[in-house]
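Let's do one together. I've listed all components of the complex below, 778 residues spread over two lines.
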Amino acid sequence: MSILKNMCKYVVAVVGQPNVGKSTLFNILTGRVERVGNFPGTTVTMNVGTRVYGGESICFVDLPGIYGLKAVSSDEKIARDFIIWGDWDAILVLVDATVGVSGFYLLAQVLQFTKRVVVALTKWDAVQKQGIDVDLEKLRKVFGLPIVTVSALKGEGIEELLEAVMSMIRSPESSNDSLYIDYGPLEPFLTILTEAVKQRAVVRHGIALRGAAVLIAMGDRDLAKRLGLDLEHTYAEVLAKVREAVGGDIEEYIADKIDMFLEEAIGSAMRFRAGYREPVAIPRIFRNPVTGFLTSFAILLSAIFTAFAINTGFPFTTILEMLGQSSVAATLERYTISGIIGMTFDYLKVLVHNTLDSSNSVLASLLADGVIEGVGVVTSFIPLILITLAIMSAIEDSGLGPLMAITLHRLFARFGLSGRAVYPMFISLGCNVPGVIASRAALDDVERFGIIASASFIPCQARLVVMLALVGYILAGHPLLQAITIVGIYFGGMILYLITAKLFRRAVFRVKNPPELLLEIPRLKIPSLRVVWWNSWALTKHFVIRAGTVLTLLVVVVWSLTHFGSQGFITDPSQSFAAGIGAAIGNAIAPLYSLPPETSWKIGFALLAGFIAKENLLATLAVLTGVEEGKTAIEQLGITLPQGLALLAFFMYYVPCMATVATIYGETKSLKLTLLVVAYIIGIALTLSLALYRIAVILH
Amino acid sequence: MIIPLSKAPTNKIATIIQVNTGPGLKTRLLNMGFVNGAKLKVLENNGHHIVVALEGGSGRVVALSRGIAMKILVEVQN
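Okay, and this is what the predicted structure of the assembly comes out as:
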């Protein structure tokens, strides 16, 4: 039995087109949503919401938002495979009636597989507001299904929907009951395919194999392969005849037929009351290319700055320092979220040292400087990631996202990216890991890989902390230069992001044309707090579980490497194991930057730790130099301005952190491409940093 | 008058005659409702991207870049 059947008595698959309001309804319907592993054979997490209804538990499985079932990306494959092979008891299809007849296209495709379906007409408040009269009785009669109207906004129809789902689950399963659309000249071919599939496939009980035959006839090669069919080889002759009969394109013919069926069957069931409907308005500000561009950038930048300001006080602390108000800046920084978290963990560390130092100083050090330090680092990340992601998902949920993508498309198209590439870029400012994952917004695989290869050039929040500390030291007393350097690093990162995307598109994939934009623009709305919370909290939790444990562990490893040497527990880090490893890396780069050996091993070790997680660059330097703060740690290194600048550039771009590399591999599923990306990034960073060093030496 | 969608004037209704994109894009277009005979209302056409509303202006609103719009042949009523 599947995991799902262990969790709940009944399983309901939830499927709908993008912008149908699935996330909002899903959250209201189920209340609690959990991530339950991945969909079989993919890296896509399965979100499951549980609801107890009438004393029995139902698991609602959130399938990806798709327009149709024929596979063009992994999203359709996941939904299609779950319908054909999944362990569900009923399928809930969401339809947005404001979209009109084409909003029922996915439903029709699902119905060709099964009629164990409940339809929810979403956004019912909007349907009425727009003056659309929907003849529900006619819809129920045409499809022979329970159809429930719901308004997630007003919380209406939820009980009725659950009731309908429950009675569908309880209804006896009549085998192979499905929607039949007559495809005329294609019918003999569909019969052959259905028979062939029947010979090979073991599918969920009650699934109509004709549904699979239709998808295969439409050219779903992935499904054909999964069912052991080779269309072009086995059926070459039949195919040629069928193509001729339908005038060339079978897929187009079937899509047209489904559309014609819907028009005929339900076209008259949905009418607009004359003069009622408000026009779909694209806000004027987004219509003008210049104001649209500026607005989009302003929205994204203010979003990022809000996240920064709440967490680290940046940019206000920097501005205050520029104005010579260092003490005010320090006070402000103390009372930002990361400041308060830092104070709390410092207090805990002192407490542990005071209590345990006299009896067992090794244990005290392990607990305070290893475990508590590690947990503190992870904790300081939580609010930051949460706030960044919350703002991002609010933008997406409001419908502003697509508008921004359109206005930014012109700029991005020059670099071989579509306007969709704006999300990975801005999310990467928070953290590269969700940034790489956000490449899923890409239009095609080539663009997606371009984004994956480029995302880690964008300095993330962790690198910002390193950046601020380094810049604060090497350019001490020059607040203007500090600001210019920081802006320069971000600007450089974005340029590298864009250039890399284009380079990979041209050189690796040999694609010359810019990607094309095809994007639905939903109506603007006030984002749903529940959806925003769920999206951001789920990803944050993911970070704490996946990255957090690794991070804490790592800090403890760093602690042991720096507190132990061949003589056992030591207080002088230069005698530790860390010194040995760091020296090896440090010595390799030392000659390039003329670094002294006592500094180079520390930097070498910090680089190693920074690969595991960027925030460790500073944390490690702090541990190695035996001081509290990152800034002071850098002072202890005694490096020159040119060395500092070169290090800064290298620290910023040198390699994606381990978590990002793992994510790159997870998203590309290719070790070769992953290694290529990592090697490319290291190469670029080294070249840049050396060039900067040479220039700085000459100028200094 | 049969023209590529990329040349369709704003506020006109355009009927799809033919979609000539590559297979992946074509599937997405068909799934969204860009089938033959579908009526699109052109909401915006600035030469770089074009925004249309399906079902004669009452359906879903979709933005297409010029490259895609060039490959969709439509008939525009005068």
